[in-house]
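Sample pair:
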Amino acid sequence: MQVLKTEKIKVDSTKIQKDFGTITINGEQHNMNAFSDEQHYLVAQLNDLQAKIRRHKYEIAQLVAAEKVFTQTLIDSVNTDEYKYPGIIPEKRIEEPKDEATTSAKDEDAA
């Protein structure tokens, strides 16, 4: 069995240069490499806030859709006979049984 050995690599952080790119503020391009720590902090805060706003807009769209469904369900429920006339059994139309002899005679009279 072979054992892998790892060595710790020392990195001189003063030699690492980060490229932050550019940002547009009020239509003007700014090199973020020249930003102060506070300006980088503000950009990070703004990025986080914009991501949260996008997420909340998505959630609001879901909530509005759900609200519409619940509203329509309530409207439909108060438009039922059971709600409008509680305890009252709606009249059922009772059809008279058809007598074949009577039906045939009526059909002949109509002809």
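The longest helix spans residues 37-78.
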